[in-house]
Amino acid sequence: RMLGASHLRVFKDVILPLLVPGIISGGLMAFMVCFNAFAMQYFLAPFGVRTLPMEIFTLIRVGYKPDMNALASIIMVITIVLVILLNKLGFSANRLMKSK
Q1: Domain locations along the chain
Q2: What is the pLDDT of residues 6-30, one digit of tens each?
């Protein structure tokens, strides 16, 4: 700001690159906490509402079904993609900070 940059330019070039890894990390942590709160989902969900963890639990209870494997695979792929994306963005932010 002292060198004549506008507030928008300071936000775009300085503040936002510093915030992105934290925002993504917070989002990933919130995703994992919500996903792991299975007991609350199971007891507090309205009748007829089925979340992905509840559906997998139901399939496990009634016995082996290929649908259960497919749903568990979807969860694993989503989690792995989010972790890889977080690592890529985190390392990019580190390189960006070191280069300036």
Answers
A1: 7-99
A2: 888 888 888 888 888 888 878 777 7
